[in-house]
Design goal:
Number of strands: 2
Radius of gyration: 18 Å
Order of helices and strands: HHEEHHHHHHHHHH
Distance between the termini: 21 Å
Helix content: 55-70%
Structural class: mainly alpha
Largest sheet: 2 strands, antiparallel
Strand order of the largest sheet: 1-2
């Protein structure tokens, strides 16, 4: 359910690409430091977006450098480190754990079970640092599981649960901007859930798995479904525009106004080729 909130790289300047890559590498580096090498396998660009958003809003002091690593042993890459990069690294590991657990329970993937077990041992430390966020992740995943078991026919219900999860992740500090961030994250979470359900429609149908659109009895209709996504993303960007962002605003604009749609339409074409 992750990996959709990414930039349209060809529309970024070289400097924006460097900055985006440095945040991504910074999160990867922090995951290694905080949760070990294996945890880096769950790295997602979704959390890079969150880190850039929070950095733009709060403008923390940054550390940086250029290093090679086990994944890129030859080419030295820029990295950035700050409190929000470290936060994004923790949230990435927590989400990766539940994502792997879901893959194991739904599809019986042994590799997912193995990865989930490797992530699990780091969860207590993450929960100590971020109890509110981790509790929301846990309760939201449980609520989603219950809705799936009962075959909930209303897509808005599971989308709303995932929206609640993402909304809490967007709030690091309870301050002047927490309400706006929570609403923005909630709308983005709804968008991600609905997009994932649309793209998985055929696969879920063939495997007899829960999908809110199948449970509702909807036939596949990309045009109608895209209208749902446009409305939901509109709510997300309405909150986004309330934030006083200057640093990296163009990069964030690229992700929300272009990147998510480029990614969606590319994946949709892939699905249509399989029809």
């Amino acid at each position: 359910m992750f990996g959709y909130v990414t930039a349209s790289m060809r529309e970024l300047t070289k400097e924006q690409q460097r900055r985006y890559g440095a945040v991504y590498c910074g999160i990867c580096r922090r995951i290694r430091e905080q949760s070990g090498q294996l945890a880096r396998l769950g790295l997602s660009y979704d959390m890079a977006f969150l880190a850039v958003l929070l950095m733009s809003l709060y403008e923390p002091e940054e550390l940086g450098g250029k290093n090679s690593c086990a994944l890129h042993p030859i080419t030295r890459r820029d990295w950035i480190d700050n409190d929000f990069v470290r936060y994004a690294a923790d949230m990435n590991v927590a989400l990766a754990y539940y994502n792997c657990l879901d893959d194991w329970q739904d599809d019986g993937k042994r590799s997912a079970k193995w990865l989930a077990e490797s992530y699990k041992k780091h969860l207590p430390d993450i929960e100590d640092r971020w109890p509110r966020q981790c509790q929301t992740i846990c309760s939201s995943i449980a609520a989603l599981s219950e809705l799936e078991k009962t075959g909930c026919p209303n897509p808005d219900e599971p989308a709303g649960v995932f929206g609640t999860l993402m909304g809490e992740l967007f709030v690091v500090r309870e301050d002047l901007w927490s309400d706006t961030l929570r609403k923005m994250g909630n709308a983005l979470g709804r968008f991600i859930y609905l997009l994932d359900a649309e793209l998985d429609y055929d696969k879920d149908q063939s495997k007899g798995k829960y999908n809110p659109f199948l449970a509702k009895g909807e036939a596949k209709d990309w045009t109608r479904w895209e209208d749902y996504l446009v409305l939901t993303m509109g709510r997300c960007t309405a909150e986004f525009e309330k934030l006083p962002l200057v640093q990296d605003k163009a990069l964030l604009d690229n992700i929300l106004y272009s990147g998510v749609w480029v990614n969606y339409r590319r994946k949709r074409k892939e699905e249509e080729r399989h029809d």
